[in-house]
Amino acid sequence: MAETIALIDYGAGNLRSVENALRAAGGDPTVTADPAVVATADRIVLPGVGAFAACMGGLMAIDGMIEALNRAVLKRGAPFLGVCVGMQLLADAGHEHGRTPGLGWIGGDVRLMTPGTDHKVPHMGWNDVRPTRADGLIAPGEAYFLHSYVFDLADPADLLAMTDHGGPITAAVGRANIVGVQFHPEKSQSYGLAFLGRFLEWRP
Questions:
Q1: What strands lie across the sheet with 93-95, from one edge to the other?
Q2: Which of 46, 69, 92, 135 could form an SS bridge with 86, CB 3.0 to 4.6 Å?
């Protein structure tokens, strides 16, 4: 029986491109805003672009969605992938136009990057992804980034990969059955499709 891959539709601008990339990687995602589908899904993907507060607000506006995510991911252990802002929402809070609480699944805060003489904000374009541990999910290579805010982790053990933009910044986070990537696999060509393929086979 085929797995149910719930791709959450909460108004994220990269929803369709993530859907297409998952299909190209061999998956058959179900685009859904139904908490009942999410609660029983075999795998869950949370896309996201834009402002932390707006994305969190969109997620919270779907009655029962946060509870369904907590039940599926934290209690049942369904493999979860957050992409870009979908990764940042895993944090305790985002700091954009004030403090907005996140899902709180991985400790830390999302803060504005500081521009410098040798780098601009937003961080936009191709950059190295350097895994910090050999878990088989995040591979070394180049991926496409587009973001102005970074995830400052509370626990270094939750770091899966780094990149560099005026200094080291978080490229991927993870714990148990949860993984989040700051880069856009849907824009990262063969590297991104290979990563999504590994996620679709991942058995944490």
A1: 99-101, 93-95, 108-112, 149-153
A2: 46
Catalytic pick from 19, 55, 84, 96?
A: 84
CA distance 28 to 188: 19
Query: 73 lies in which domain range?
Result: 5-201
Catalytic residue among 123, 147, 165, 184: 184
**Number of folded domains in the chain?**
1
186 given a catalytic annotation: yes
Exposure string (b/e) for 163-182, b if CB count within 10 Å is 16 or more?
Answer: bebeeebbbbbbbebbbbbb
pTM beyond 0.85: the answer is: yes
Question: Could you tell me the CATH number of the domain that includes residue 89?
Answer: 3.40.50.880
Q: Is 19 a known active-site residue?
A: no
Phi, psi of 197 (to 5 degrees): -60, -40
